[in-house]
Design a protein that fits this description.
mainly alpha; about 170 residues; 8 helices
Length: about 170
């Protein structure tokens, strides 16, 4: 009987609902952060475990391989070109969309969202259909000795296509 009275008094206190709702919110936020951390760190941990599977010495020796150095050089070159271009064009597109009303604004928004909406497989297929040997521009590119597919210009175009929406949005 006294425990019922104590529980009734605690339940009738004014700050109880706020405290409980704060605990529930904190629990959900913590659970969300834990889930996010798992999504971010699980692949990262897997990469490091696989990279260091044969030890630190083997890992650092792999940097002496010419293919590894070429891959690093290619990645840094593409990043050095794509980041400034995407920054300039992304800010310009975001400014135009946010500041002005113009014909074609919906088309621009659609083009910006296209890489997010379209499967990477379909994007790659379209890329090959446009710039491949049998593609729309393939003959002209071959006649002018221009390589796009599996070459630096193609990698830059593909990277810009994939990353542009994240800058513009």
């Amino acid at each position: 009987s006294t425990s019922k009275a104590v529980l009734a008094e605690i339940a009738s206190r004014p700050g109880r609902d706020t405290f409980v709702s704060t605990l529930i919110k904190a629990g959900f936020i913590g659970l969300s952060l834990l889930f996010l951390a798992a999504l971010l760190f699980a692949p990262l941990v897997t990469v490091f475990v696989m990279a260091l599977e044969k030890g630190w010495e083997m890992y650092f020796n792999s940097f002496h391989d010419s293919d590894t150095l070429a891959a690093i050089r290619l990645t840094l070159t593409v990043a050095a070109i794509v980041v400034p271009l995407n920054t300039i064009f992304g800010i310009a597109a975001a400014w135009a969309i946010g500041k002005f009303e113009f014909k074609g604004k919906s088309v621009l928004l659609t083009l910006i969202d296209l890489p997010i909406a379209v499967s990477p497989v379909i994007s790659g297929l379209v890329y090959v259909l446009l710039f491949g040997a049998q593609g729309w521009f393939g003959l002209w590119l071959q006649e002018n000795d221009i390589s796009i597919i599996y070459a630096l210009p193609g990698i830059i175009l593909a990277t810009m296509f994939v990353t542009f929406p994240y800058v513009a949005r």
